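**Folding the chain**
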Amino acid sequence: MKRMKLYEADDKMIDLISDNYSMLQGLSAFGIRLGFGDKTVDEVCREQDVDAYTFLAVVNFVINGYAPKTTDERLSVRTLLGYLRASHRFFLDFQLPSIRQKLEQTLCSNDHLAPLILQLYDAYAHDIRKHMTYEEKTLFPYVEALLRGEQTAKYNVDIFSKHHSDTTGKFHELKSIIIKYLPHDGLANSRLTDTLYDLYNNEEWIRNHSMVEDLIFVPAIRCLEKKVKDEEVSTRLQDMIKPMEGRETLSEREKDIIICLVQGMSNKEIASHLFISVNTVITHRRNIARKLQIHSVAGLTIYAIANNLIDSKCFSAM
């Protein structure tokens, strides 16, 4: 029985599961082990190295349809990635084979329709496997690269989002055929009902899984993409600044030349003021331009103010 409420970090984990037993598989996907006693969600998550905020975001979405904001940067992409990977393994390695086995046992007395129904189920399973394999081979490695601070121009989460389609169509068709056209009595009917119950549960599970990807994982990746892009821009700017910082330092005479230039003196006036030749002034100016990569008086003025060679207030008064 589901209890409609938003769960918080100080709620007991046992209450969350008791109210929503369907979240048991979710615990496993997050890597949370049973045996947590009466500890809170926060305590269990901290002890088992799970991001509690992200765990609760998924729980409250699956239970109540409450999705976090698309710009929520508190979500842990790494935690979501682990959750989705584990969910894939559970569904592909356990749920799909288990349901097929139940179908085989249930349909064993119907030689005419059993092969056709199993064929329909296998087609559905193939679609699901193909869908999840694409994510594991393309999307998940891309996200791992983002987590390392790497981004590629050939792929982004919008490409994934455009091709992320619903895969429950054939599942719905299979359920309808079984309900409408496979009447059984006694034990066979009970087995069929049990199998249908699993089919309905797994259809809901795969739908929730897809919605978690669309409404939580994809927005979280977009935030991560923006963060990585911003960091790359910052790194490029730092790379541009570092070579300037590493250039030769100015001599005291070169600083004097800059001050004179900023004050509007000509080469001849600078030579007279500093008691050096005009050619020496020209040589100093070349060295200044080479070291600073600044060739204009306006640029030198900014440099002089920024490096306290002149007082900006005094300059304004000139």
User: Anything to note?
Assistant: The chain has a mean pLDDT of 87. The two ends are 81 Å apart (CA to CA). The first helix runs from residue 13 to 19.
